[in-house]
Amino acid sequence: MELKTMPELFWRYLKRLADIRNDIDTDAAAEQIRRGIWFRGPNVWILAFSIIIASVGLNVNSTAVIIGAMLISPLMGPIIGIGLSLGTNDAELLKNAFRNFLVMFVISLLVSTLYFLISPLRLNNATELAARTSPTIYDVFIAFFGGLAGILENCRKEKGTVLAGVAIATAIMPPLCTAGYGLAHLNAHYFFGALYLFLINGVFIVLANYMMVKYLRFRSMEGAGEIGDRRRRAMTALFIAFIVPSLWTAVILIRDNNFERKVAQLVEGNRVVGKAYIYDYTVHSGRHRNVEIRTAGLLDEASKRTLQESAKKLGIKEKQISISDHAFGLTAMEMQGVLDEYSAKVALQIERKDREIFRLQKQIDSLKVWVGELRDTTGKHNPPEE
After folding, report:
1. Is 331 inside any structural domain?
2. What's the CATH number where 180 sits?
């Protein structure tokens, strides 16, 4: 019997642990996916209702409502069908899945646009809508790995709740509703940003399904080799076209976050500078990153140089900082707010110092007791003086 080394045994264990071929049924999965691409009858109404629910959730900034809408939406069917058709070279399935995808897209966009046209609610800080207008590479990762989980769930012999999680994670529907908002209010930023996020989700779910269909060796159509090669080249070009802008957006997002973090460190480390106090600041992100710092009090040139040197150590350039001295321009309410914040900060520092003094005093008292006991013990053993 051949003895195996520890790495070989470990690798064999991992292969056995990750093996999925005995737990899947590709023929049953393909049949289920084919049935799920159609948009007729109840599916059309369920889609319309879920779109309205998602639009309401976006309109009132309710994450829970948006998640509920994603759970009941039948949007994933045609997208998974497109991935299956490309992986199996099934031209008829591709045509049907793509046609139903267009039906889904048009119905969703029309219903969401109609809702936002008649909705009287306009929030000043619509964070749920704004969050779906700037896709990044992280959205690509979510869509891709969500698509992998989705196709595996379709292939499992024992179905679970993974598809519900995939529907929530990949978030196909909220971007469509956000695009409807942009169309209703003629806002190009919301419309094109959300539409790009929707297409990213759809394209990379298709890619994930295509790759898993090939890996699991679904039954393919015969005589479609050359057509399949053309489709693969077209898919590669399409994925590159989608992923490059998302990579650039991710780089911008990371740079903006790093700049905001450095500004927060600068302000917290120099809240009181000279005879002035930094009471507020505004960070402007994007191509020309800068921060506007507002101070109260007397900010002389030496204090400005101190602030700029601190910024330089954090990697913030001098041209990225503008300082507004509002020593005489504050309203009574703003000045009271500044004083209250400064007083609270000073009170907190005093409280910390008092705690430190109390701790040191206890140590001194303990040392005095110990020294006294040491003297008493030493005195008992000393011989009496003659």
Report:
1. no
2. 1.20.1080
Mean residue pLDDT across the chain: 79
- Whether residue 215 lies inside any domain: the answer is yes
Domain hosting 26: range is: 21-221
DSSP, collapsed to helix, strand or coil, labels residue 272 as: strand
37 falls within a domain: yes
User: Model confidence over 135-150: pLDDT tens digits?
Assistant: 777 788 888 888 888 8
Rounded alpha-carbon distances, angstroms, from residue 125 to 121, 226, 281: 12, 52, 19
| Model pTM score | 0.65
The encoded tokens of residue 71 equal 């759970």
SS3 294: strand
What are the backbone dihedrals phi and psi of residue 242, each rounded to the nearest 5 degrees, phi first? -85, -35
Contacts of 2-9 with CB under 8 Å at 24 or more apart are none
pLDDT band at 110 (very low <50, low <70, confident <90, very high): very high
> Is the predicted pLDDT of residue 127 greater than 90, yes or no?
no
Query: Into how many domains does the chain fold?
Result: 1
Q: Tokens for 58? A: 């976006």
Q: Is residue 40 a part of any domain in this protein?
A: yes
Q: Give long-range contacts, CB 8 A cutoff, 24+ apart: 267-274.
A: 267/293, 269/310, 270/306, 270/307, 270/310, 271/345, 272/342, 273/299, 273/303, 273/306, 273/307, 274/298, 274/299, 274/300, 274/302, 274/303, 274/306
Please check the confidence at residue 91 and state whether its pLDDT lies above 60: yes
Distance of CA 155 to the CA centre of its chain: 29
| Phi and psi, residue 295, nearest 5° | -120, 155
Distance between CA atoms of residues 340 and 259, nearest Å: 28
Q: What radius of gyration, in Å, describes the C-alpha atoms of the chain? A: 32
**Cα angle vertex 231, ends 229, 232, to 5°?**
65
